[in-house]
Amino acid sequence: MGRPLRGVRRVEYAGGGAGGVGGGRLGRGGGKAGRRVALSAYPPTRLSALEGGGEMGRWRTGLNEFDFVLGGGIVPGSVVLIGGEPGIGKSTLLLQCAARLEAAGVSTLYVSGEESPHQLRLRADRLADDAGQVHVLGETRIEAMVAHAETVRARVVIVDSIQTSFTDALEGAPGNVGQVRECAARLMRFAKEAGPAVLLVGHVTKGGGIAGPRTLEHIVDTVLYFEGEASLDHRILRAVKNRFGSVDEIGVFRMTGTGLEPVSDPAAAFLASRVTGVSGSAVTALLEGTRPMLVEVQALATKAGFGTPQRVATGLDHRRLALLLAVLERRGSLPFGNLDVFVNVTGGMRLLEPSTDLAVMAALVSSVHDRPVPADALFLGEVGLGGEIRPVVGVERRLAEASRQGFRRAFLSARSRIVSEGIEVVGMEGIGELARRLAA
User: Fold this and answer.
1) Taking the CB of residue 73, how many other CB atoms lie within 10 A of it?
2) CA distance 227 to 350
3) How far apart are CA 380 and CA 389, in angstroms?
4) In this structure, what is the dihedral angle of CA atoms 154, 156, 161, 164, given to the nearest 10 degrees?
5) What is the pLDDT of residues 280-301, one digit of tens each?
């Protein structure tokens, strides 16, 4: 038997020996036989013995779009990470959440390592929500944050930001890989053991990802990205990970002088400024999580002035655009070799799913022939390398939303075989048929 470890008490299971389950000897690589093991303060429990078999209790902020993205509200004991470009509105959104939670009786602590309490007061004075009762703290040391959160008995703790925080247990400047990982891990343990929800603000890198180690996103329960163009009023909150709700849900906000306002009808928000009767414009329906969203795709094809033709895409992957142009040229007999091509997705949205291929092609064909597509037409379909138009998932929900927004025709794959009330379905086999229909 080896010598007992200092500082570790001997624990025995009922009916078993010391040092492990049943008191058996540790296997190869497990250390010396008989070594005592420090056990968790919480013994194993059957799931059936735990409370909360139904829907978990949540704290609703009253910002409907924020609650929707989270799956119905903030789950007690959860850790949420929110990332976004500087100045996009992360701090404003969380300060509004803190004000509404405090008004609902949920004690909230807002910890800022980037602004002093007086600067937070200046920000709060501009908001329509009264944040006067929110506890604020200017601190960057994790140990002090946890102690103050326990003192005020905060049930929601907001840390702005995780990259400015540090712990005394490690050397190194705030923001380095070790500090970010350890600070996040300590806040996660605090949330799981003490029960408050922790909301973290994360900086983003030049590539758009959250700065710090990849383990940061693995540690937390929910990862949200706050997106939008600085020149536009709309902001999009997107869930890319959510242990307590649907992934890829989005919430739409409008930035105003008094804070962020949830958009009541997000599906129509991105078509509000649409101009009909202009060539190079087509509408498609995205499926963001469980919510269909209508967006306008604009394209402009013009003769190249000199040199290699340009290919510029905003809101669409440039490699996907190159693929679609190649298919149009080979299968649709449309020459793009001497044309500059520009594609834009309005409202700051991004086309990530292939179901929007047909709308991009319709806008390109419309621009080349300088003929507008029908104003009440919707385009849905994935395009293959052979020029075939393939069916998409969730087409019923997309068509229902399009019908609600006043669209009367939908161009789809002929293999979709769907009938929708209030909207005429036009089936097509390939892009050659699309080019002929739009050029007629």
Assistant:
1) 20
2) 10
3) 9
4) 30
5) 999 999 998 888 999 999 999 9
What is the structure's pLDDT at 181? Answer: 93
Of 80, 66, 63, 440, which Cα lies nearest the Cα of 243? Answer: 80
Structure tokens given for 287: 């499926």
**E-only strand ranges, 317-374:** 339-345
- Model pLDDT, residue 289: 85
For residue 117, the surrounding DSSP H or E stretch is: helix 117-125
Give the fold, CATH level 3, of 269-439. Ribosomal Protein S5; domain 2 (3.30.230)
Q: CATH 3.40.50.300 in the chain, residues?
A: 64-264
- Nearest Cα residue to 258 out of 123, 111, 158: 123
Q: What is the pLDDT of residue 231?
A: 73
Residue type, 121: R
Q: Are 274 and 376 in contact (CB under 8 A)?
A: no
Of 213, 220, 168, the residue nearest 190 (C-alpha)? 220
User: Using CA atoms, how far apart are residues 50 and 63, in angstroms rounded to an integer?
Assistant: 31
Predicted pLDDT at 1: 43
Q: Does domain 64-264 have CATH number 3.60.15.10?
A: no
Q: Which two tokens stand for residue 237?
A: 């909150």
Residues in the chain predicted with pLDDT less than 70, given as ranges, are 1-35, 40, 52-56
Nearest-5° Cα angle at 135, 132 to 138: 115
User: pTM of the entire structure?
Assistant: 0.82
- Tokens 């009808």 locate to 265
Taking a C-beta distance cutoff of 8 angstroms, is the pair 80, 126 a contact? no
Q: CA 58 to CA 45: how far, in whole Å?
A: 23
Which among 148, 142, 200 has a CA at the least distance from the CA of 170? 142
Every domain of the chain with CATH number 3.30.230.10 lies at 269-439
